[in-house]
Amino acid sequence: MSGTQTVSITDVGIKVTLPRKYKVVMLNDDYTPMEFVIILLVEVFGKSVEEAEQITLQVHNDGKGIAGIYYYELAEQKVYEAIMYARNNGFPLNFSIEEE
Fold first, then answer.
1. pLDDT above 90 as % of the chain
2. Residues paired with 27 in a beta bridge
3. pTM over 0.90
């Protein structure tokens, strides 16, 4: 008999936990035009024009809206890209990251 043994993952009891996801939250301001916000959501977050319009209205009406949900590192990258996009176009639009 050989010395090798087959062990299934269920026998060992390995549990895999997926990393947490985070919301990229867009914050309202009184200076950034809604048209620019829609373009930013399409360009940086890959939203359709219809989705971008809905998010923009939510930001306008509620003071904030979810631009996307990502793993933490990607959420950080999206926030950086969006802030740079806004600043390069002269707007103070801001974002935060919240745990989902």
1. 82
2. 64, 94
3. no
